[in-house]
Design goal:
four-stranded antiparallel beta sheet; 529 residues; globular; alpha+beta; single chain; nine-stranded mixed beta sheet
Length: 529
């Protein structure tokens, strides 16, 4: 098959039956009661003596500090060394990690029993004090010398303390915090308290409990790990793991086909044929938990007008972008919550393209003649620049709005959006948000509430609904609150709603590895065929 445009059906056919079925399956939440430890990775016998793997993403990590970032590309590097109390397996089920047990002991309080026999890479044993410190470093600005941008990832959590006489940690929350275990299954890497307090190299060195320890860090070039021989589970199969980056998808594909790397992200549809027809690589697609959108800052004109924001949604021919730019490898959205997530509102549809109505709303908004600029990262998301250019062209086709595109370095753009100050970010930008908890709250709270860490919007009704939802037990009543919030947000149009991203990987045929819907590349799950 040629490298020309590839249909979605053909693309999934390339992936093979099992991977194609997974890619079409959609996202569902995991069981929150699981206590088992994952068994993927680490074959149980002697690991291969020399099994080197290279992974190429679109961006290098912005830091090696696990509590001071908000990027999946950084997280994919950090998770090789740092671990949390809980985790999710490849199917989304909550599993035990550094905690052997977790329980709710009373309203607003949960307890984690900490695993014994775990060591940090400097040889020191993991303690409950390290766990409590790590939680507090995220949620309390005066802990560990850091105001963590991840505070809302532990939404509602107010602090942690060691339980006297037990190898356990008590975690307190405002209200009942119904998704607290889901939060800890996705967030909060554990660091060693004494190491953090005695080093000024947290952003450039690593000391975790995970299956790989840092061997070499060449900032902006590569990160190299080696297998940690004293890991508390079976050792990893991979002996040496390297992360590199290439912004251009064509460069990543060429590196894969030339045998220079083993896993690449965001293979564009037009390159699927080259990968499939090569002797040494395969395509591995999966629908992700990430929504792609254009945020509009509510506090600046013309985006302060609901009519103007709705007009921009109506100006966009989303099916055309999905078909012609993404070759069908995306799902249209009309609300912040993806289908299959708790709180998704099935009665809310994507905005239809309606140029005439869009122009009329612009006139009614009082902002006819507005000139706007869409900021977009380069190489972070599948076809990000091309999608931004298509959005800009379609807006520019209105007779009363002009729009241009400004390409941005992702790290720089992300830094502006995660500093907790809405005024430092651009007025109008393309960005993606991955939600590994499968719950609407963890998209709406950080992005669309007044005090959200990355917010671009404020609405009293949404704030109230989210506060009420976070103080309810997880059930139908809470789900209805979340659905109401999604309907309001659709109508208020704080974003141009775009698409659910598909994660499309190119993989060396010699590797045994399946992609995850949460976009995490866990090298412990990689083995040789």
């Amino acid at each position: 098959m040629s490298d020309a445009k590839v249909s979605r059906r053909s693309y999934l056919k390339f992936a093979g039956g099992a991977a194609a079925s997974a890619a079409l399956a959609g996202c569902t939440g995991g069981n929150q009661d699981g206590n088992g430890t994952t068994t993927t990775g680490g074959g149980g016998g002697e690991p291969p003596e020399n099994f080197q793997v290279t992974i190429t993403q679109g961006q290098m990590p912005s830091t090696l500090d696990p509590h001071n970032h908000r990027e999946t590309t950084t997280d994919n590097v950090i998770l090789q060394t740092y671990e949390g109390l809980l985790a999710r397996d490849a199917k989304g089920k909550i599993i035990s990690k550094l905690a052997t047990e977790h329980e709710r002991v009373e309203r607003g309080t949960v307890k984690f029993t900490i695993r014994e026999g775990v060591t940090f890479h400097n040889g020191d044993e993991l303690t409950p004090e390290d766990v409590a410190f790590s939680i507090n470093r995220i949620v309390k600005p005066d802990t560990g010398g850091l105001k963590s941008p991840q505070r809302d990832q532990l939404a509602g959590v107010t602090g942690a303390e060691v339980v006297d006489g037990e190898r356990a940690v008590r975690v307190n929350s405002e209200g009942i915090n119904p998704v607290v275990f889901s939060l800890f299954a996705s967030y909060c890497d554990v660091m060693q308290k004494s190491w953090v307090q005695n080093t000024d190299q947290i952003a450039k060195k690593m000391n975790g409990t995970g299956p790989f320890e840092l061997q070499n860090y060449n900032e902006s070039v590569r990160v190299v790990f080696q297998r940690y021989g004293d890991y508390w589970r079976d050792p990893a199969d991979v002996s040496e793991l390297t992360f590199e980056a290439a912004k251009e998808s064509s460069t990543r594909v060429n590196q894969l086909l030339n045998g220079e790397t083993d896993i690449v992200v965001n293979v564009p549809p037009q390159s699927a044929g080259r990968v499939k027809n090569s002797n040494g690589a395969r395509i591995a697609p999966v629908p992700s938990t990430r929504i792609i959108y254009n945020a509009m800052r509510y506090d600046v004109e013309p985006f302060s007008s609901q009519k103007f924001r709705r007009a921009l949604n109506l100006a966009i021919d989303l099916p055309s972008i999905i078909e012609n730019i993404l070759s069908g490898f995306a799902d249209p959205t009309g609300q912040p919550t993806l289908e299959g997530f708790n709180g998704y509102n099935g009665n809310v549809d994507p905005y239809p393209a309606n140029k005439q109505k869009a122009q009329r709303l612009v006139e009614e908004s009082g902002h006819a003649g507005a000139s706007i600029t869409l900021h977009t990262p380069v190489g972070r998301y599948l076809k990000d620049v091309e999608v931004a250019q298509a959005v800009s062209r379609q807006i520019d086709q209105l007779n009363n709005v002009s729009c241009s595109v400004q390409q941005r370095d992702f790290t720089s753009l992300a830094g502006e959006l995660t500093d907790g100050d809405i005024e430092t970010g651009p007025n109008f930008y393309l960005i993606g948000w991955g939600n590994a908890t499968f719950d609407a709250s963890q998209t709406i709270i950080p992005l669309l509430t007044t005090d959200g860490a990355l917010t671009s919007y404020s609405n009293d009704r949404v704030d109230r609904l989210m506060q009420e939802a976070q103080n309810m037990s997880d059930g139908d009543q809470r789900k209805q609150k979340l659905q109401q919030a999604n309907k309001i947000l659709h109508d208020q149009a704080p974003w141009i709603f775009l698409n659910r991203q598909y994660s499309v990987y190119g993989v060396n045929q010699e590797l045994q590895w399946k992609p995850r819907r949460d976009e995490r590349i866990n090298a412990y799950e990689i083995s040789q065929k």
